Amino acid sequence: MRRSTMKQTTAAGLLATPSIPRRKPLASTIGIFGVGHHSYWPQFDGLLDEMKRKLALFVNKVRAHGGQVIDFGIADDARSAYSLRNQLKAASLDLIFCDMLTYATSAAFGVIARDLDVPIVLVALQPMKALDYSRASTFMQLSNDDFCAVPEFAGVAIRMGKRPPPVILGTLDDDPAADAEIADWCRIARVLHDLKRARIGHFGHVLENMLDLQTDPTALTAAFGCHIVETEPDDLMRQFRQVSDADAEAKKRQILEVFETPDPKSDPITRKLTSEDLDMAARVAVALERFVDEEELDGLAYYYEAEPDSPMRRLVSNLIVGNSLLTAAGFPMCGESDLKTCIAMLVEDRLGIGGSFAEFHPIDFREGFVLVGHDGPHHLNLADGPPLLRSLLKFHGKPGAGSSVEFRIKQGPITLLSLGVTQGGRFKFVIAEGQSLRGPIPPTGNTNTRGFFQPDVRTFLKRWVAEGPTHHFAIGTGNEAGVIQQVGEILGLETAIVATGAKKD
């Protein structure tokens, strides 16, 4: 098969990982208000103006991360806090930053903490790294008294029946650690924004006998706010029948721009991608895009077998390529009808770290790693170089045959997120950080990456299963356990971090 375009290469001459754009932009709505003490303003000329300047600088920092940011001004007593409470409640916010501009009494915060069911982060960023003690004044102290009221505010939040609010502590300028925390909270806001608004499609049924995948859709709405849309494979078939030859040819060109199509290696059920499998993959990919648009979906979990040798079976067993393209575009698609892992993939995607469908494969006891992957769908933007397409004569454990996606995850830190269920029926985040390192993987038309985890592969896997995960999980790049744990805590979920930042000697 000939390429319609030349693939891009890196500076080192290697073929580059594809970069598939999002179907829709990331979104969030963040509210910011500052606090101070009304008694100070008549006592110190210019202090209120200095507080407004500090607030404006912080607002600009947050706006640099995108999304909608609303500046609600300064609350400096109980009356202004009660007025501000109503404005905040009306704004449909995903996250609130309370900018601790100087000392403030907790009356400027208490009713807001009590009445808003939105995470509030206290921000204490003083302008100076240290006071100029030779020139120090009360004005200078008050201008840098950002932390002074934080203990008071935290204690009042607890008395109001809320979790102690997280705190960003540092300086307003030249503080990479504080800036990184601000960025993390802006990413968390994107996760919360989409979780409580997402329409997650579902068709078919869980792959029979996988009891850990069974999920109550109402429980997902209760925990996350998302709505589960029960769809019909017949509607996907209707879209498939309407795909024109021109539509299919255009999609085939896109597929061949993204994927390599190598010769088979050691696995006898693989062969070089056939023109018939490419055509089917392209037509299904077009149909999928129209299907999710028609249903206004933000994700899809699916599994359906259909009648043997029927057009429907041919259709539903050839979703991997189209689903992988959609997953890379920020639209999580989850096989085996695993709604829980679809949510995990959405969380990782909105954090900007990927979120590919995965499970554990064979362990390498010689080198001390476990293969991590699945037969699809996959987040193509995580590939280490161009992903591969192979034709498979059979899909192991499932009916059908056709094209399948194979690649390694980029070398470097990785984070796993599984959404388990406790004996009491509540969802639980099971999280692990590790490392993906380059090396041979099985040429089987599946993703696989070499996952190294602390303290060693045996201990890690025993600890992982002891936390009760679903056997599937989302895999993303970066060491992001702390951020994901923060999301889980905001949602009121139990979270367990099984391993952190592994490195192989």
User: What is the alpha-carbon Rg in Å?
Assistant: 26 Å
Q: Judging by the overall fold, what is the CATH architecture of the largest domain?
A: 3-Layer(aba) Sandwich
Number of E-type strands: 19
Assign the CATH topology of the largest domain.
L-fucose Isomerase, Chain A, domain 2
Structural class: alpha/beta
Count of domains: 2
Shape: elongated
> Which residue ranges are poorly predicted, with pLDDT under 50 across at least 5 consecutive positions?
1-6
| Count of DSSP H/I helices | 16
- What is the terminal separation in angstroms? 42 Å
Biggest beta sheet attributes? 6 strands, antiparallel, barrel
Overall pLDDT level? 94
Q: Which percent bin holds the helix content?
A: 25-40%
Spatially, the strands of the biggest sheet line up as: 11-12-17-16-15-18
Please write the CATH class name of the largest domain: Alpha Beta
User: CATH homologous superfamily of the largest domain?
Assistant: L-fucose Isomerase, Chain A, domain 2
Share of residues in strands: 15-25%
How is the topology of this model organized?
Blueprint: E1 29-35, H1 40-43, H2 47-63, E2 68-75, H3 78-90, E3 95-100, H4 110-115, E4 120-126, H5 138-143, H6 150-159, E5 167-171, H7 176-195, E6 199-204, H8 217-224, E7 227-230, H9 233-241, H10 245-258, E8 270-272, H11 275-295, E9 299-303, H12 311-316, H13 320-328, E10 333-334, H14 339-350, E11 354-364, E12 369-374, E13 388-392, E14 402-406, E15 412-421, E16 427-437, E17 447-452, H15 457-466, E18 473-477, H16 481-490, E19 494-499
Parallel strand pairs: 1-2, 1-3, 3-4, 4-5, 6-7, 6-9, 9-10, 16-19
Antiparallel strand pairs: 8-13, 11-12, 11-18, 12-17, 13-14, 15-16, 15-18, 16-17
Helix pairs in contact: 7-14, 7-16, 9-11, 10-11, 11-13
